[in-house]
Each structure stands twice: as structure tokens, then as C-alpha cells.
Design goal:
- 2 copies of one chain form a homodimer.
- The first copy, chain A, is built from 11 helices and 2 strands.
- The first copy, chain A, is mainly α.
- The longest helix of chain A has 28 residues.
- At the A-B interface, helix 5, helix 6, strand 2, helix 9 and helix 10 of A face helix 2, helix 5, helix 6, strand 2 and helix 9 of B.
Chain lengths: 244, 244
């Protein structure tokens, strides 16, 4: 059985009151409604129907739909970041630390696909106070990952990976980190627990692709360095250019 | 100036009628409305307001909101696949073919971020006939990519990459291909034309990460093969297990 995180947290701190359990339960239902109908399409009435809790009851716990989305997102990010910090404390090896990061994220993404869908889809919905607070949490999470990648680049002297690298044979840290987030965050669209490998295997494969990818040892067994793309536009014969 | 694809297409085939232009224009507006409010949250009335076309006028072109979403998705996928086939015809080199695939996809993703957002978010909305037809197109696209990856694995004898590979030091083709789609499809969430490298550079970096990643030459310069993750649950000291 899965124990909802907020319950587990509350239990751990001795705050497992009836209120907390109810609160956590409603967040789970709300995640389901938002994942199903989208934030814009979902209503407090839908949530009331699914959860069996009266509208008045819902408003007792939450003032608004906006607050609900804020709490879901905040809960998800803080859970992921808290677990990550605990796990990172166990290793100082740069490769291992990146593997820990990936494992921690994939673990959550695979266990909570609906929450990940809501996070991805409603990423830019919240404005003002809530939006600013969440943006800061996301920036913190992004920076942790950039720090880990910088740590690897420094430890292994990866000259082609860096903040300013781009284009010819270089990989920009931002592209690498966002690429990694893409690999992990896309999981909710395709991962099927019954047919796909478990979270540990997926995390290991994603880590392998990422680590080999940013290390860039493509010349080591006699293969040529990656060629600059020579894609030509079939219509004009000219090299493809960025459309704007 | 960007010429909408359907217009360009129509112009190329001499079908650039007033009807076609209007049709293509409405699809662009609809993409904007869906990207902004989500499919569930958007209404034909919103589209009417944004486009300045009367509701009656909209229904003259499209019977329903569902039909609009179907046409946006179908148009996007067929444009991407048609361009891809043309471009793939220019090369038989397995690495180059994968670079072509990535470049073609990234090119579109960067130029049409709103369309990519709608595709990602409303992926599972359409049911029955429309849904079945789109699922078939997406399967075709996925299979092209799997074919390219299989082609590379065969040509270079990449024994650890394959349909059944998993877990220990192996990479499953499905994980690799979905990871690649993740890197490319996540672009709409972060890519900023003004500060990030152009589509060609992004495509080149994503290709590099992917190609090095699946080739897996991590033992070639004396680094050890990727260790099996030894993540422990900080609470219990036990190895992390898949939550279910």
C-alpha cells in the first residue's frame, strides 16, 4: 500500500491528526481531477463529486482551486527536494551524485504519474504570490542539478561541457540539464508499470545515457567527432536555418 | 515572416484559395487558444473572440472543438513526418539519419512551441475515430525512430542497446527512444529564442548526448562501467524499491 507522502510526513512529526489525513486525501483527489480535466477544465464541483466531500467541506480546507494547485505543486517539489538532500548527503562522488539525482526524480515520477502530469501541464498557471514562490522552488531544484553537472565537469575536466558552451562540439549546461529533465519528465506520458522496467532500471538507463552523453568520448574508439549537421533543406538545397 | 505550413503547402500545390488561407489561419488561432486555456478550458466562443470570426463562421469551417484539436494534431504530425521522409532520403548513414531525425523534430519544436504544447497536453483527449487515427500516426512516427536506432545498433554492433535490453548496463530501445522524445518535446517548456542557441545548435547538442549515450563507450578511457545504483533509502537503510 502506498502511504500518501503528506500523511507519512505528518506521522513522522507526530502531527497525524484527522485534519491532516483529510487534507492529504483531498490533495490526492484534486491531483486526479486536474490530471483528468486540466486545471482550467476542472471545478471544485468535480472535486466534490469525485471525493464525496461537500462543496462547503472543500472550502473549509481550501479557499480556492488556485490554492489547491499551489499546494499540489509545492508538496510535490518539496517532497522531491527533501528526499534528494537526504540522499545526496550519502555521497561526494560526482557521478554517483548525478545518479542519485536521477534516481530520486524517476522514483517519484514513476510512482506519481498523475502528479507529474499536473506539474507539467499547469506549470505556468499560477501567478503572483503562489507563482513566485513556486518559481523559486523550481529554480532551486534546477540549480541543484546544474551544480551536480558542474561538479562532474570540474572533477573530470570536461572541457566541452559548460555554461557558455554551444554549437560546435560543445554542450551547454542548460541544454544538458533541460534535456535530462525532459527525459525524466516525459515519463508520465509513456511509462507503463506492467511492461516497462522498474524505476531503478529506468533511472540507471537514463543516467547512463546522460553521463555518457555529457562526457562525450565519441573519439575514443576511432569514431570521428560528431560532424556538424549538414542538413539541407530538400526544397532549396540550402542549409536549414532557424525559422523565426 | 513565418508562412503557416498549411498555407505554404497549399501554395506549393496551387491550392492557395481563400478558403485554405482562412482555414489555416483559424487553426493557428485555435492552437493559441488551446495552448493558453487548455482544451477543456477553451471554448469556441474564446476562439471567436480571439480570431474575430463569428461563431457561425467558425462552425462553417469546423463542426466542433474536437475536430479542431484533431486537425491541429494531424497537421503537426503529418508536416513533421513528411519533412522527415524527404530529409531521410538524402542519407543512408545511420548516425546522420538519427541527426536528421532530431534536427527535423527540434526545428519544428522550436518554431512552433505553442503547437508542441497543445500536442503534449492534449495527447490523450481525442477518443474513437479521431483518437485511433492519431494514435496510428504517432505509432508510425515512433517506429521510424526505433528503426533508426536499430539501424545504428546493427551497423555499429551495439550489443548493450536493444529491444530487450534492460537493467544491468543495457539500455532498452524504448527507454532510449522515449528519452530522446523527452529531450525534444520538453523544449516548449524552457526554450527561449532570444537567449538559447538556435534550433541547429540545440539539435546538434541533443544528438550528441543521445548518440554518445546509446553508444556507451564509458569504459574506453579507463573509467569504470556504470555502477549499479546503490541508492539506499535514508529512512530504512534498505535499497530503494519501486513503489507501487
Amino acid at each position: 500500500m502506498v502511504i500518501p507522502d503528506s500523511q507519512a510526513q505528518a506521522a513522522a512529526t507526530g502531527q497525524d491528526t484527522r485534519f491532516d489525513r483529510r487534507f492529504s486525501e483531498i490533495l490526492d483527489y484534486a491531483t486526479e481531477v486536474f490530471a483528468e480535466k486540466g486545471y482550467e477544465g476542472a471545478s471544485m464541483r468535480d472535486l466534490s463529486r469525485l471525493s464525496g466531500i461537500s462543496l462547503a467541506g472543500l472550502y473549509y480546507y481550501f479557499d480556492s482551486k488556485e490554492k489547491l494547485l499551489y499546494l499540489i505543486q509545492k508538496h510535490t517539489f518539496t517532497t522531491i527536494i527533501d528526499r534528494l538532500r537526504e540522499r545526496l548527503a550519502t555521497s561526494s562522488d560526482p557521478e554517483e551524485r548525478i545518479r542519485i539525482f536521477v534516481h530520486n526524480h524517476v522514483d517519484y515520477a514513476v510512482a506519481k504519474q498523475k502528479a507529474m502530469k499536473v506539474l507539467s501541464h499547469e506549470d505556468d498557471v499560477l501567478k503572483n504570490g503562489y507563482g513566485t514562490e513556486l518559481a523559486a522552488i523550481k529554480r532551486e531544484y534546477y540549480k541543484i542539478c546544474v551544480g551536480l553537472v558542474d561538479g562532474l565537469a570540474q572533477a573530470e575536466n570536461l572541457s566541452r561541457l559548460g555554461r557558455r558552451a554551444s554549437g560546435k562540439n560543445g554542450i551547454a549546461t542548460r541544454t544538458a540539464v533541460m534535456g535530462l529533465f525532459g527525459m525524466m519528465n516525459w515519463l508520465y506520458t509513456w511509462y507503463k508499470p506492467r511492461i516497462d522496467p522498474d524505476a531503478e532500471a529506468i533511472a540507471s538507463q537514463v543516467s547512463d545515457i546522460f553521463l555518457r552523453g555529457v562526457r562525450g568520448e565519441e573519439t575514443s574508439n576511432g569514431r570521428s567527432a560528431p560532424r556538424k549537421s549538414t542538413l539541407a533543406d530538400p526544397a532549396t538545397g540550402k542549409r536549414a536555418r532557424k525559422r523565426s
